[in-house]
Amino acid sequence: MSRLLITGGTGYLGSVLVRQSAALGYNVVATYFTQAPPTLAGVTWLPLDVRDPHAVAATLASTRPDRVIHTAFQQSGPDLLSITAHGAGHVAAAAARVQARLIHLSSDVIFDGEAQRAYTEDDPPAPISAYGHAKAQAEALVAAAHPSAVSVRTSLIYGFAPPDRISRFTLDVASGKIVAQLFTDEYRCPIYVEDLAAALLELSSTNYQGILNIAGADRVSRYQLGTLIARAWGQDPSSIPAGLSASQSPPRPRNCTLNIARAQALLSTPLRGIHAVLRDHGRLLDGG
Fold first, then answer.
1. 117: exposed, middle or buried (C-beta count within 10 Å: 0-12, 13-18, 19+)?
2. Per-domain residue ranges for the chain?
3. What residues does 67 pair with on adjacent strands?
4. Under CATH, what is the fold of the domain 3-157+191-213?
5. pTM over 0.90
6. Which of residues 188 and 281 earns the better pLDDT score?
7. How do residues 93-128 score in pLDDT, each as one tens digit?
8. CATH code, residues 158-188+218-280
9. Whole-number Å distance between alpha carbons of 69 and 203
């Protein structure tokens, strides 16, 4: 089985990728930065700061992976560009140097959200948030350094064991621990973390190049998503306040719906919508 390097291996998506790929028999090398990694059979852990191009180049030169899945990122803060954008460029350049297949994780928030339809792979980035700008810059750096790489645009990632950051926030809002509104006019295509990880591993064995949208099949508002999550965890969704993203400052991208037809035709991994996932896990309760 080929050698797979996963950056951000202790992150929410990265940890599932590490577990799934080890179970499939890959020779797994996973990197971490601030969070100490667990001990897993078949997994070699290496510390790595993707801001350091020399460290990235040395890591890939010593491990010689056949495939790289780059999940490491920073969503905000002073290191946003150096980790999320420049770090992606460093990984892409190092992967190209050792002729490794590269899958880079991008985001649906590279768009301004003003389209009245789902975004396709042919739509150019038009970010309006700092994180969106960083992810758009990352895509450009990856394409320049590693033309045969894939930049996967995905959406909100959720899961159950443990619950993801968005689910924890939603449950805190539902329980009154946090006072916040969930938006009825902001649309995404949330994807189950296990489905996304499986799709990325399958994608890494294909010859596909360029941009690919991989997200869940259901388009839901942030408010709808919140009510579904609350019900799934046995909380009362009526306690979640609804609001309008259009009233927020600074502005947020409102329609980040992704057209996933190309991924559905390419991959055998089901890209289930949240309703199907909750139903499959026995969490879709009455009213969902």
1. exposed
2. 3-157+191-213, 158-188+218-280
3. 4, 101
4. Rossmann fold (3.40.50)
5. yes
6. 188
7. 999 999 999 999 999 999 999 999 999 999 999 999
8. 3.90.25
9. 10
